[in-house]
Amino acid sequence: MLLKGSSSAKVLVASTSPDAVNHNVAIRNALRDGFAEVLGDSAVRASPLELADEAVTGFRPSLVVALGSVAVDAAPLRALARSARRSGARLAFWLHDDPYEFDYGPKAEALADHVFTNDRWTLPHYRHASVSHLPLAACRRTHDRPVRPMADRPLDLFFCGAAFPNRIALLERAQASLSGYRVEVRGAGWPAALSFAENIRLAPAAMADRASASRLTLAIGRDLDIANRRFRLPGSTPGPRVFEAALAGAPQLCFAAGLEILDYFDEGREILLFDDVREIAEAIARARREPAAFAAMAERARARALGAHTYRHRAETILAVMAA
């Protein structure tokens, strides 16, 4: 039995895809840090999938958390499961690309003692006997920034993320109304027609720096299915960027694709919601008029993230669930 905070608990965090194709190594390291805050550094290890078998054999954890996407067919997930069984460890999968890759979920269900899904609406569609919802989070070491005065912020609007079709369409519709503002969009796949967008991938810490330097940071969810044909599930849970930007002290303007976000942040006090592109320029103008109000909103959001939405909190949840 795994006991939260027990000196005998040892956790290995392993990726579910090889690092050569894994764009979320930073999340693996952030979760390792979260477990270390709870259990201590010596009780936690992190490993790429390709070295996980040796890590399990050498470290002998009581819990292995396999984190990521299971869409890569060649990923040796069965070998990871066999290693965990041989060492007597329990095996949890935390899948962070639901619902967009939900059709691959049975691969994890066949191997896991417990499945965590990042998306709440996906939860009831799993058939595993032991499954729960766990949103992604923010990393204190990487994302935490003090809230900067609005007058010290060189940007009016910032967005960082891949150029999924829904994001391109939204920003193309907003472009004309944003022409008088200092706007920065960074990521991959952005079209040249968006004058303020550059195809530059930002490291997680650099993303936090730019968010903390903007009067407003946009949050626009993903809308691109990779393997979601079985039930065609819409996503409901906000992605990690909402928690990361909050911890970075960024006032956020979040596209209201659904209302689950209100379970994590209070609208008007900690974040702002919008559902029409005209509201983006209006929110920037308001941020310029009311700098103290927006700084206070950022402070409240940062406090909420520090109090409930770091990887320490997610590690505590995993330990509690796996001990039940």
TrEMBL record:
GO terms for molecular function: transferase activity. It holds the Pfam family Glyco_trans_1_2. Keywords: Transferase. It comes from the Bacteria. Residues 169-320 form the Spore protein YkvP/CgeB glycosyl transferase-like domain. This is Glycosyl transferase family 1.
